[in-house]
Amino acid sequence: MIVQLMGKVSFQIEMSEIRSLVSRATGRSLVLIDEICRGTETAKGTCIAGSIIERLDDVGCLGIVSTHLHGIFDLPLSLNNTDFKAMGTEVVNRCIQPTWRLMDGICRESLAFQTARKEGMPDLIIKRAEELYLTMSRSNKQTSSTANNGPSVGYSNVNGLVDMPDGLGNMFEPPLGAFGLLRKDVESIVTAICKDKLLDLYNKRSISELVEVVCVTVGAREQPPPSTVGRSSIYIIIRRDNKLYVGQTDDLMGRLGAHRSKEGMQDATILYIMVPGKSIACQLETLLINQLPSKGFKLTNKADGKHRNFGMSVTSGEAMAAH
After folding, report:
1. Is residue 193 part of a domain?
2. What phi, psi does 73 have (nearest 5°)?
3. Which residue ranges does the record assign to the DNA mismatch repair proteins mutS family domain (predicted)?
4. How far apart are CA 307 and CA 322, in angstroms?
5. Number of structural domains, the chain?
6. Closest C-alpha to 288, from 318, 251, 240, 244
7. Residue 140 maps to a domain
8. Which helix (DSSP H) or strand (DSSP E) does residue 33 occupy?
9. How many angstroms separate the CA atoms of 111 and 313, rounded?
10. Residue 163: its H or E element
């Protein structure tokens, strides 16, 4: 709905207020902006927001800027005093809930579906929205591969910028460099290996339904989305020396934090795939550790005895116990 006040639409009013704010801000100012540039078309609103953030960063004021415009994080902004924060999440009574505490990093998802369901939105509408979301995600991935390559909040110092994610991919993706090409190769091969394995498990009735394999990237400084909390996943860390680390976990955010706390791993990029349960995650982890070297990738975790035994046969009780 477009709100008019004194003959102006909401975006005009916002621009008038922010113009006054920007023109008067100093290094001693406290600036609070909620959902910056939300009242206009996404691409241009993102660029206006990015330019405003640069201005506030240059002034050196203290402030918080929240946004759902994830394209801001892909713009070539000149920022010296800005930090990125996201809101933490936790599982309470089997439901994902925000902690209302800020944590380092960027998150590009939100709790939109959960919030809509909690407020009584018909389940039929939510399920259709989730289907459309997956369609848009796949479309963005395909566009990205040919062209290139939770609720969160933004905290600015300006001294920080917080992302309140609902987005479906990057609007402004830079051309792929060597690292980007490696990531694409890893994503493609990992997805293919996992799809084949899950199909095999489904045909052998080891799993009740065939799940879709969606490989998601968590870039440097980013955090996994709220939808990963309390769920099993496999993950691949791509290090700056082009070596890979394969793991599985029920706490992706915690595991990623532990890895990034190590020297040289602060900017590590990871890929992850949500899977139906820890047992499946363990099998896929072992399979990837054994097969990725044969595809030409170098791993930091080698296939030891239990990895060689585990997963050789889906029905092998000995193999299951070994892991």
Report:
1. yes
2. -75, -5
3. 29-45
4. 8
5. 2
6. 244
7. no
8. strand 30-33
9. 38
10. strand 161-163
